[in-house]
Design goal:
Layout (H helix, E strand, L loop, with lengths): L11 E5 L11 E6 L4 H14 L3 E4 L5 E2 L5 E7 L8 E4 L4 E5 L4 H11 L1 E2 L11 H7 L17 E8 L4 E5 L15 E9 L1 E2 L2 H19 L20 H7 L6 E2 L2 E3 L7 E3 L5 H19 L8 E2 L4
The chain binds flavin-adenine dinucleotide (FAD).
Amino acid sequence: MSSSITSTPALQRNVLLAPHTTLRIGGPAAYFAEPESEEELSKLLSWAQREGIPFFIFGNGSNVIFEDAGYEGLVISMRRFRNDLIRMDLYQLQVTVSAGVSLARLVRFCQESGLAGTEFLAQIPGTVGGALVMNAGFSRHGGQRNEIGDLVHEVRALQKDGMPVTLGREDLKFSYRHSGLEKYLLLEATLKLWRRSKDQIQNEMKANHDFRKMRQDITEPNAGSIFKNPLGLSPAAGALIEKAGMKGKRVGGIQVSEQHANYFINLGNATSADLIQLIQEVQKAVFHATGITLEPEIHIAQKN
Ligand SMILES: Cc1cc2nc3c(=O)[nH]c(=O)nc-3n(C[C@H](O)[C@H](O)[C@H](O)COP(=O)(O)OP(=O)(O)OC[C@H]3O[C@@H](n4cnc5c(N)ncnc54)[C@H](O)[C@@H]3O)c2cc1C
């Protein structure tokens, strides 16, 4: 190993990844780091490139799983990356926020500033970077889709070779749970918002909170929806899984939630092999019952 990496204090060896994901699945990363600044991130990338070591970048791990064998490379968590950096431009009605900021923090900041638009993100347990890659969204009303991509004015990122890039609205192609941004390392985004009273924003947040509590109040480790909802007139993924008789189905330590069939829960000792097998069994059963192929929403960490 090159000696220059010793100047990057954030680097750790053999770190178990399971505790860094909300589903609590995944073996060790050969190298693991939680950079706090762009300088630290750049040093890590240069080192990985120089040494020919693959790397994987993630946020709060609420939509990603690592395999039981772990990751033979460098895993970079963005949870500490400038995680309090939010700048407001009240004249332009814009907020510029670091990829490492939690969605909860962003929403609180906007509510306190009387800026509306982000309320639907409040209970999504991710970072801004993860939400951008996933084009995270939530709506209480069937026909309506609130997605973070609708708010994005500009994204600042690094290409995988470390070159900085700024992507304007015209460069971005958001669609349902898709952004095309996974080929970048996201640093920050500027969101376009609008004025609304703090009380109205608070009321909207409360309505979302109450709605979610009623339907998705699951206490065991999970990763939110495992499958995307099929587009068009099809019932939601959860309803299809239920129709296929897979509610409560268990493989090893992982189970389709009895409460919300599109959530899988870790009963305590689940492995990524259990999860992958359960995903495949549910896909087969749903296809057999309905002719529809469910597409996973969660990402499995791959080597770049
Ligand atoms: C209880 C629960 C409820 C949920 N509810 C919703 C919901 O209502 N709507 C919804 O859309 N999702 C929901 N999710 C899923 C998840 O929280 C969101 O997709 C969230 O936006 C993921 O953010 P993250 O920081 O955890 O990303 P991670 O899971 O860490 O990463 C997700 C993807 O983004 C990439 N990534 C992350 N950060 C960066 C970065 N800075 N640069 C480049 N790539 C990056 C990763 O490589 C990975 O491919 C829920 C999850 C849970 C556990």
